[in-house]
Amino acid sequence: MKKVHLEKLICVECRSKDLALPIILSQERDEIIEGIIECASCSIRYPIIEGIACFLRPQLRTSEIQAYLAKIPPVTTNIEI
Ligand SMILES: [Zn+2]
Question: What is the model's pTM?
């Protein structure tokens, strides 16, 4: 997923356009490979896995997605690894 696409997305839970990329774990040029998108309005996190943003409501997420999110700590400021 490219960073520029973030402004075109909305939160599927609360419909807010106020999304941020607080965690980028892996990046190739302008393509985010692994990371987290977070809604500033309702605080739901959406993972980016293998370059794909997984915009699923929490109740629709697979155990694989839940496990991915569980291993990433909460953050209050932007970090890049
Ligand atoms: Zn939201």
Answer: 0.81
**pLDDT tens track of the chain, all 81 residues?**
999 999 999 999 999 999 999 999 999 999 999 999 999 999 999 999 999 999 988 888 888 888 888 888 776 655 565
Distance 76 CA to ligand 1 centre (A): 16
What is the distance in A from the centroid of ligand 1 to the CA of 43?
6
Distance (Å) from CA 38 to ligand 1 centroid: 8
Structurally, the chain folds into a number of domains equal to 1
Range of the domain at 22: 3-80
Give distance in angstroms: CA of 61 to centre of ligand 1.
16
| Contacts of 21-25 spanning 24+ positions with Cβ under 8 A | 21/78, 22/75, 22/77, 22/78, 22/79, 23/72, 23/75, 23/79, 23/81, 24/79, 24/80, 24/81, 25/72, 25/81
